[in-house]
Write a structure and sequence with these properties.
The structure is a homodimer.
Chain A: E1 22-25, H1 27-33, H2 41-52, E2 58-59, E3 62-63, H3 76-83, E4 92-93, H4 97-105, E5 110-116, H5 119-126, H6 130-146, E6 150-156, E7 160-161, E8 165-166, H7 169-181, E9 186-190, H8 198-210, E10 218-221, H9 229-238, E11 243-246, H10 266-275, H11 284-298, H12 305-311
Parallel strand pairs in A: 1-2, 1-11, 3-4, 4-5, 5-6, 6-9, 9-10, 10-11
Antiparallel strand pairs in A: 7-8
Chain lengths: 315, 315
């Protein structure tokens, strides 16, 4: 019974929010990396092309990690040349200098490293201490910056950690400072297990800007494990954040599985930003169509509520 | 891999928010009214008893509407005496004077009427104009107040309407004023089709308080059709709202069906409020257990992300 004008919310701007937000689309990397099914290279390339056609300007493409660790993205060398001519930014994840070599050889101009705010996750994910991981990233960042390549620093477990519980804010601030001091251009503050709430977001951002970190260097990366991602995003926008990570269709953690990571769906984010009168440049209808297309390839419906509402997709 | 301390978020209060929020639980009425399955009276009674055992203090119990219109709640006369001794508030919906008679005969001390902000929905739902519906409610409210019964006025379609599109704020303010002027003690501002976004919420609440409506008389009733309910709730809390409607387990509109209404899940709300350090008096673990129990009766998993995350419930 929806009429066409309700395919978009009424725009009613709120005071004190940014005029424009850059969405850092992570579906093709963070999303597909965490899906059970391995997607053929040609489908990945078409996915990135369709995402670029929606108006998204930053589309994280793949990861140059060892195929043994992330078999879903083992085709990075084949995929990247297929999409590198697109008129969008295509950051790639590089875990170490070997990954950087591979990315640079293909002409990548944006890379990302993946650090941890907690010792437990650094140990589990990288088999290193937090400081050993930072030491591993330092030459990666230095060499990338030497070639004028943009570097993003992901920081996982910024709010809670499955082994350590709540993560102290000063601990997060210390690792953020270290990543910026070694040359990272921007950070992505990850709520990897989805336990953040809006007051916690405000407190962390306030502590970071109080420690001299410019808010323009901060992106946020929320998970919808407990349904909090958009409320947390609103709190971040109210602190001046203008870079928000999201995953088309909520790829990368079906909320109906125990292994849920529950990435914030780009469509749910775009719906809110449109309603707030915040420009993203994204065509929501095209984005929904892209996520429905990818959901068909994955053989399951998108967990995004906006995708479901606008596509009348049934589970 | 979750440790026990992560069954609740870290409490990090934000400034400018209320210290306490009253949750108006609508699962047993608005929830079950919109489920396909008709639930046996004994199960409904047990559901309300379990909800009362979680610490919820206001549990909307049923509706005294003609059974022809809402067969799911045709057992109101049988259900109410089963639960009326519980030490909680048990408001009931009354569509007209006949419904009020039935509710008062059973000793109900809180009733609710259900108005519309738009002509299209008033026509569809009540077969009346907005003003004709108000005229129908006036003697209901007057008689209830004469017996010192608390009256809530639901106002649906406060943000968007499926036939009319975006709903002008002055139109909503006018009907709110009329409901308060006839004696309603509180209003529930309904985003019936889920299209509200936070700036729209702020604008409506600002307009209402600017028109002399005390914020203490205002509750909010958001739907998660597009995933916006918690972000909208945060915006409402920032305007001083302390009454929030929610439905245990997200009952009342499976988001995976075309007929989705997508009530905000009480668990997702409680998670956010706990994180914000806002007292609700609700035991989240008991609430999740109650929703899992009811989901088993309905034969489908809860759509609440928090229920799924904490119960490891599979679809």
């Amino acid at each position: 019974m929806n009429t066409p004008e309700l395919d978009l919310p009424m725009a009613v701007p709120a005071t004190g929010l940014p005029a424009r937000v850059r969405i850092h689309e992570v579906g093709a990397r963070d999303g597909l990396q965490n899906e059970k099914a391995t997607v053929p290279t040609a489908v990945k390339a078409e996915f990135v092309r369709r995402l670029a056609g929606t108006g998204l300007t930053t589309i994280e493409a793949t990861s140059f990690v060892h195929p043994k660790w992330v078999p879903q993205l083992a085709d990075a060398e084949d995929l990247y040349p297929e999409i590198s001519g697109l008129p969008v930014s295509l950051p790639v994840l590089v875990p170490n200098e070997r990954g950087l070599d591979r990315a640079l050889a293909l002409g990548a101009r944006r890379v990302a490293v993946f650090a941890s705010a907690t010792e437990s996750f650094a140990k589990a994910n990288l088999n290193r201490t937090v400081d050993e991981a930072l030491a591993m990233f330092e030459p990666v960042v230095t060499r990338a910056k030497g070639e004028d390549v943009h570097v993003r620093g992901y920081l996982s477990m910024c709010f809670g950690d499955p082994w350590e519980g709540p993560v102290p804010i000063p601990q997060v601030v210390r690792v953020c400072r270290a990543l910026l001091d070694m040359g990272c251009d921007e950070l992505s503050l990850g709520d990897t297990i989805g336990v953040a709430t809006p007051g916690h977001v405000t407190a962390l951002l306030t502590a970071l800007t109080g420690a001299g970190v410019p808010v323009s260097a901060l992106g946020v990366h929320f998970h919808d494990t407990y349904g909090q991602a958009l409320a947390n995003t609103l709190a971040a926008l109210q602190q001046g954040v203008t870079t928000v990570d999201a995953s088309a269709g909520g790829l990368g953690g079906c909320p109906y599985a125990k292994s849920a990571t529950g990435n914030l769906a780009t469509e749910d984010l775009v719906w809110m930003l449109r309603g707030l009168g915040i420009d993203t440049g994204v065509d929501l209808g095209r984005l929904v169509a892209t996520s429905v297309w990818m959901a068909a390839h994955l053989g399951r419906p998108s967990p995004s509520r906006t995708v479901r509402a606008l596509s009348h997709q049934e589970s």
